[in-house]
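S.,

Sequence below, as promised.
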Amino acid sequence: MLTLTAVAILPVACVSYVIVRDEARNVTRTAEFEVRDAAQSAQARFSRLLDQRQLQAVAAAASPALQSAIARDDRRSLARYARRKDLLIQVGGRTYGRRIADAFPASAELVSGGRAVGSVVSRLPADGATLRRLAAGAPEGVRVVYDGLEGSPPPQTGRQTGRGVTLPLAQQIRVRAYLPTSIESHRRTAAYLRVAEAGLLALLALMLLTLILARPLLRAFRWTEEQASEARIDALTGLANRRALEEILAAEISRAQRFAHQLAVVLLDLDRFKEINDSFGHAAGDVMLRAVSRLLTSLARQGDTVARWGGEEFVVVLPETDLAGARRFAERLRRTIEAHAVGDMKTSASCGVATMLPGDSVEELLGAADRALYQAKSNGRNRTESAVRGPSPAAA
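The prediction came back faster than expected:
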């Protein structure tokens, strides 16, 4: 009987050791993923909030009321405008508006009579309300705090707060997401208890089988789970980047060829985007790129893939879509972008549309769309052209 019990315990002990080790790794990997995701989400929300303040400053700088007050050197009107809009207006060596001790500034150049005369600054307060907006949607137990904010104590690190990730926000101020040691310890303990319960049940089952069959059972099960978080996201727009697009498109081509489905791509380029950078600055150009990326995402269907190809070029992958449907979609994109203004900025887009032929590769399909885009540019921009293609040599 002792021999049978020892034979039953041995495999359970081996399996329990492996599972305990992997459970501990899973708890660690999950905690690392959660704090990194919370920090990146907070950083992305901060960028969107600061973009809104940037647009507010740009709109205020172009306001007729503000321009009139500057032209008349009406200091009272400038002060009232600054208080009403909660702005800082710096003109003529004077500053109008209420100062905020801790805030993230978003400024726009103030131009009057064709020359720079000062600036308009919109502030995003670095207070608890903003922090709660940044931390919205964080996983349970994950804390989000400011790091490097003047006048506030530095966040604790190491043993006091446990695992954490710190990412930059603006200037010397960062955001830190961390999982308190007590919560991670509680998760680890819960995992150990689950393993212990599973081990006891397995031990009872093995002993019962050993008694019934009168032979040792030396089977072990090993459970491993790996999480991969390689970045495939464009940092500026939040869309898939070029590397991710190529992988996704290769998979879609393979699926379309296997099941004989249609597949189309739209290659889109913003017209005369350099003029926006030259006229409004590269920061305003980044705001426009983010606005266009949000438009593309809102117009795409579930299952479509929107990616930033590079610069001001975007690609939309349209599974199960023929050439006519892809062209209609591209035209809808083009008209929406043409009608959308970001502050005083407007742009248009040229689109190239191509559908997959049998035997197409990623390079061949994107190359066809690129040639169609070149034709749209050559024909005057702000238009959609379709690639006219015959059967590929591989299909023949």
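Residues 36 and 385 are 42 Å apart (CA to CA).

Coffee later?
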